[in-house]
């Protein structure tokens, strides 16, 4: 299931509006209307993007009275980062092995 | 244009077959048929995935005779990783500020 999680994570991050929302929420929680503010976008469009972020596990929301507050889930960001770091490490190891081989010959 | 680059990068990584191709290429270059091997997939489907990876700047290919060799572009992986790390740092800074605030009160 980890794979499907990464599918949803990277898919959610492939959109500039959703990345801007993540950037905003990394600076602190925000209500849906605060989140909507910088975008020339309808409320349903913002809610749609939020839904994709929630399904990816990147954002959680909670409702108090009439205000829905959105929060970042840093663990989800970390998962995507770790996958990328893992690939880079693999590639760097490969480079090191090549370097050793060149020194030996 | 950096934004569009991240769109393409994250979109390319949102597919499990393409991530498996990236994982394979991080262990070293491969021909298209070597890359195709682990997948129960037609050649056109594999070539289609490769195209998405190339457009995202994650993979470059070069042809010698009849063999097309694919290579990873580690800088593209690094770009995606850096964006994620930047968000995490922002979030951790926010946490630190909150911690300081709590200590002060």
Automatic annotation (TrEMBL), chains A, B:
Pfam families: HTH_20. Transmembrane segments: none annotated. PROSITE patterns: HTH_ARSR_2. InterPro entries: ArsR-like_HTH, HTH_ArsR_DNA-bd_dom, WH-like_DNA-bd_sf, WH_DNA-bd_sf. Residues 1-92 form the HTH arsR-type domain. PANTHER family: SLL0088 PROTEIN, TRANSCRIPTIONAL REGULATORY PROTEIN. This is Metalloregulator ArsR/SmtB family transcription factor. It comes from Lentzea miocenica.
């Amino acid at each position: 299931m980890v794979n499907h999680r990464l599918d949803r994570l990277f898919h959610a991050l492939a959109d500039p509006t959703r990345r801007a929302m993540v950037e905003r929420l990394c600076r602190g929680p925000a209500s849906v209307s605060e989140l909507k503010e910088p975008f020339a976008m309808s409320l349903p469009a913002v809610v749609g993007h939020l839904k994709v972020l929630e399904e990816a596990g990147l954002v959680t929301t909670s409702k108090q009275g009439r205000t829905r507050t959105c929060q970042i889930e840093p663990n989800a960001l970390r998962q995507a980062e770790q996958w990328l770091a893992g690939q880079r490490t693999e590639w760097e190891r490969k480079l090191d092995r090549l370097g050793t081989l060149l020194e030996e010959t």
